[in-house]
Amino acid sequence: MLIKIRKGWELPESRVTSESNYLNRRDILKGMAGAGLVVSIGASLPFRNALADEMDPSAGLYPVPHNGMYKITRPMTPEKISTTYNNFYEFGSHKTIWEAAQALPIRPWTVRIDGAVEKEMEIGIDDLLKKMPLEERNYRHRCVEAWSMVVPWSGFPLKELVKLAKPTSKAKYLVMHTFENKSVAPGQRQFWYPWPYTEGLTMEEATNDLAFLVTGMYGKPVSKQNGAPLRLAAPWKYGFKSVKSITHFTFTEKRPVTFWEKLNDNEYGFWANVNPEVPHPRWSQATERDIGTGEHLSTQIFNGYGEYVAEIYEDIKGESLYM
Ligand SMILES: Nc1nc2c(c(=O)[nH]1)N[C@H]1C(S)=C(S)[C@@H](COP(=O)(O)O)O[C@H]1N2
Ligand SMILES: [Mo]
Question: What structural domains and CATH numbers belong to the chain?
Answer without folding.
Answer: 19-309 (3.90.420.10)
